[in-house]
Specification:
Elements: E1 5-8, H1 12-24, E2 28-34, H2 41-45, E3 48-53, H3 64-74, E4 78-80, H4 90-98, E5 102-103, H5 108-115, H6 117-126, H7 142-152, E6 156-164, E7 167-172, H8 178-193, E8 198-202, E9 208-217, E10 222-234, E11 237-243, H9 250-267, E12 270-280, E13 283-290, H10 297-304, H11 308-316, E14 333-340, E15 352-353, E16 356-358, E17 365-369, E18 376-377, E19 384-392, H12 395-408, E20 410-412, H13 418-424, H14 428-432, H15 439-449
Parallel strand pairs: 1-2, 1-4, 2-3, 4-5
Antiparallel strand pairs: 6-7, 6-8, 9-10, 9-12, 10-11, 11-14, 12-13, 14-19, 15-18, 16-20, 17-19
């Protein structure tokens, strides 16, 4: 089995990232695109391009029949879904495999299991991962919810089983507020996901968001590639990520990394995955697993020297892991800033024509972006237009390089989040590494109040 031509079922910077890895491996690429993305950089660079529908994602990037047809018409023998869109759609993965096309991703049954939060929690617990105290699966009865909440102690968090992006989620401070707040969360979940199944867990006061990158070969071998700290978030969306975390000791990394790698090996996991935890007072609590490549994967690449997309392709092609755990060394520090086309402080979207573009450069500075001068950013998709990734031998050196890179980067014609990042990395708490998942929202609230 050998992969010769990959259809990239995505758009934007990740589509370009996959194209680059494929070409470096001597593999041809097929870009699929909506009419809104006809002039996108990955479409221009791919060996073949197929228009799969109008701008709306539901009619293009989420259109299974159009994507499979494009693969068949162009003779693609593999499909890479990137992140978002089809990347965690188990049914799509099954359809790809049923057509004799290689799926560059985890086994469909693992995508399905980990995509259901209740099932994921049960599976994680069975695999030995530490859990946030909470309900044993879904709860639908208010008396039962109150009993569970009394057992684990208020405040508790009501979460949608099918949820994501902070929707269908409410903090319940006390028993008398249980019913009205859970009803709100259920109606949000029903509207967003068509499923109002809820579960409860202990609400942690001031945690950090720590995630471990894992890779499995599908045959019972797995490794971890260290952790990333993704605690700088707004509305449960990550804004800046760094690796390693400023608060995790090498001993904690080895211990927890060993636990997640063993869990993935026991599961027979295939490809790239991320195990996400909340961390507070030295304790890890599993929250979810993402069965795909993450937006923030470049910081892991920077500190390990490994190309994660190349590894995904190799494993999908039936090859073993290219490194052992003993081979891996974590060196230096890396930070990624997500650059969005939006007002840096009100976060209002700012699509439109890029009149000038100059990416930052220099030693250990990487920009993942499909931007170019004259490109029109469409209003139909996620607002992220670039990722600025900077590496340094130390965290302090990395931050100094990042300050310089942000000063150097130019995107004109639209508003971007560059000024927000430039401001954030001058804050004492960020410089010292003393921040939690609540830090950014508190900072922005104070800033807007002044």
């Amino acid at each position: 089995m050998a992969i010769n031509r990959i259809l990239i079922a995505n758009r934007g910077e990740i589509a370009l990232r996959i194209h680059r890895a494929a070409h470096e491996m001597g593999i041809e690429t097929v870009a699929v695109h909506s009419t809104a993305d006809a002039e996108a950089m990955h479409v221009r660079l791919a060996d073949h391009a197929v228009c799969i529908g109008p701008p709306a994602a539901a009619d293009s990037y989420l259109n299974t029949a159009a994507i499979i047809s494009a693969a068949e018409v162009t003779g693609a023998d593999a499909i890479h879904p990137g992140y978002g869109f089809m990347s965690e759609n188990a049914q799509f993965a099954e359809i790809v495999e049923a057509h004799g096309i290689t799926w560059i991703g985890p086994k469909p049954e693992h995508i399905r299991t980990m995509g259901d939060k209740v099932q994921a929690k049960k599976t994680a617990g069975a695999l030995g991962l530490p859990l946030v105290p909470g309900s044993d699966g879904a709860v639908s009865d208010f008396d039962e919810m109150k009993r569970v909440a009394a057992e684990i102690g208020y405040p508790v968090l009501a979460k949608a089983a099918a949820g994501g992006g902070g929707r269908g989620m409410k903090v319940i401070p006390s028993e008398d507020q249980m019913e009205p707040l859970v009803k709100q969360a259920m109606s949000e979940a029903k509207a967003a996901f068509g499923d109002d199944t809820m579960y409860l867990e202990k609400y942690l006061g001031n945690p950090r968001h720590i995630e471990f990158q894992v890779f499995g070969d599908g045959n019972g071998n797995a490794i971890h590639l260290g952790e990333r700290d993704c605690s700088l978030q707004r509305r449960h969306q990550k804004v800046l990520e760094e690796a390693p975390s400023p608060v995790i000791t090498p001993e904690e990394r080895d211990r927890m990394g060993g636990i997640v790698a063993k869990a993935m090996a026991d599961m027979g996991y295939r490809g790239a995955g991320t195990i996400e935890f909340l961390w507070e007072d030295g304790k890890f609590y599993f929250i979810e697993m993402n069965t795909r490549l993450q937006v923030e994967h470049p910081v892991t690449e920077a500190i390990t020297g490994m190309d994660l997309v190349r590894e995904q392709i190799r494993i999908a092609d039936g090859k073993p892991l290219s490194v052992t755990q003993e081979d891996l060394r974590f060196t230096g520090h890396a930070i990624e800033c997500r650059i969005n086309a939006e007002d840096p402080f009100t976060f209002a979207p700012s699509p439109g024509k890029v009149t000038a573009y100059h990416p930052a450069g220099g030693m250990h500075v990487r920009v993942d972006s499909g931007l170019y001068a004259g490109y029109s950013i469409p209003p139909y998709y996620d607002s992220m237009i670039a990722k600025l990734i900077v590496y340094g031998r130390t965290r302090e050196g990395c931050i100094m390089r990042l300050k310089r890179a942000l000063e150097e980067m130019v995107v004109e014609g639209v508003k971007t989040s560059i000024p927000l990042h430039a401001e954030l990395i001058r804050q004492p708490d960020i410089l010292s590494g003393d921040y939690s998942i609540k830090w950014l929202e508190d900072y922005l609230a104070k800033r807007n109040a002044e």
